[in-house]
Design brief:
This protein is 36% helix and 23% strand. By secondary structure, it is an alpha/beta fold.
C-alpha cells in the first residue's frame, strides 16, 4: 500500500540551523498493516507523516501509494487518498459548524461539488448510524456546534470524519496525546474498532510505549531520521516496555533524549 524509498529531508539548508530530519529512510506497508511509530523528539516521526501527506516535499527519494507515485503530488490532490487525525483536537474540525455539517464536508472530500441540497435524509441517517457506533451520544446532537464538544468527543468525531470515505492510508499523529488518560483510552479503542472494521492501512505516531505495543500488528522505532527497530507478529506481542527502553538506550549511547518517552 505504501512504499517510502530512500527519502531524505533537511530543513534550513545552508544555515546554522540546518537539520537533517529524515535520513535515507525506507518503509514499506502492506495493505491492512496497523503500524505504530515511536521515538524521541526530533526523531522524524511527524515529518514522516507530513512527507506522506504532502505538507513537505522530500529532498530526494520516492513515495508510492498503492503503486502510484505521489512524491511530488500537491497536498490537496492527496486528500482523497488519505485520512489524518492531529494531536490538537481543534485542528480536524470546523468549530463554528454543526456536527452534521462537519461530517458532510468529510463525506465530500475528493468529490465533485454541485448546487444540490446540502445534506439528504439518507446521508443524515448514515451519519446517525456512524455516530451511534461511537457510543458518545453525539447522534442526538447533530445540529450542535462542534466547538461545544469536549476534547475527547471532538477527537472521536475527527477520527470518524477521517475514515468516513475509507482512505487508502490513515495517519494518526499522536491523536490522543492532548487527552486525559481515560478519554485517550476510549479514543484508542474507537481507533482499533474503526481500523479493524474497515481493514484500514494505518500509521500511528505515539510517545506512549505501552500504546505502541498494545495496538497494531507492527511497531517501528525511529532515531535521528532513521528506522532503528522494526518488529511485527508474535515478536511484537511479546515485547515489554523495558525492551524498548533498552533498545533506545543502546542506539542513543545511554542518553535518553526525551523524558516524555520514558515517563509514558
Amino acid at each position: 500500500m505504501l512504499k517510502f524509498n530512500g527519502v531524505y529531508k533537511t530543513f534550513n539548508h545552508n544555515t546554522v540551523n540546518e537539520k537533517r530530519v529524515i535520513n535515507d529512510l525506507s518503509l514499506h506497508l502492506q495493505r491492512g498493516d496497523f503500524v505504530t511509530v515511536i521515538g524521541g523528539n526530533g526523531a522524524g516521526k511527524s515529518t514522516l507523516l507530513n512527507l506522506i501527506a504532502g505538507v513537505y516535499p522530500p529532498d530526494s527519494g520516492s513515495i508510492l501509494l498503492e503503486g502510484e507515485a505521489i512524491t511530488h503530488l500537491p497536498e490537496y490532490k492527496r486528500a482523497k487518498y488519505l485520512g489524518r487525525v492531529f494531536q490538537d483536537p481543534m485542528m480536524g474540525t470546523a468549530a463554528n459548524m454543526e456536527i452534521q455539517e462537519n461530517l458532510a464536508l468529510a463525506y465530500r472530500r475528493g468529490k465533485r461539488r454541485g448546487l444540490r441540497w446540502g445534506i439528504t435524509n439518507k446521508e443524515k441517517q448514515n451519519y446517525i448510524e456512524k455516530l451511534t457506533n461511537l457510543g458518545l451520544g453525539l447522534e442526538t446532537r447533530m445540529t450542535s456546534k462542534v466547538g461545544l464538544l469536549s476534547g475527547g468527543q471532538r477527537q472521536a468525531l475527527t477520527l470518524l470524519m477521517a475514515t468516513l470515505q475509507q482512505p487508502k492510508l490513515l495517519l494518526l499523529d499522536e491523536h490522543t496525546a492532548a487527552l486525559d488518560p481515560g478519554t485517550a483510552e476510549r479514543v484508542l479503542e474507537l481507533t482499533q474498532q474503526i481500523v479493524s472494521a474497515n481493514n484500514l492501512t494505518t500509521l500511528m505516531v505515539t510517545h506512549n510505549m505501552k500504546q505502541a505495543i498494545q495496538y497494531g500488528n507492527r511497531l517501528v522505532m525511529m532515531y535521528e531520521g532513521k528506522i532503528i527497530f522494526d518488529v511485527s507478529g508474535v515478536e511484537k506481542s511479546d515485547l515489554k516496555v523495558a525492551d524498548l527502553l533498552k533498545k533506545f538506550e543502546i542506539v542513543s549511547n545511554g542518553s535518553f533524549a526525551n523524558d516524555r518517552m520514558i515517563l509514558s
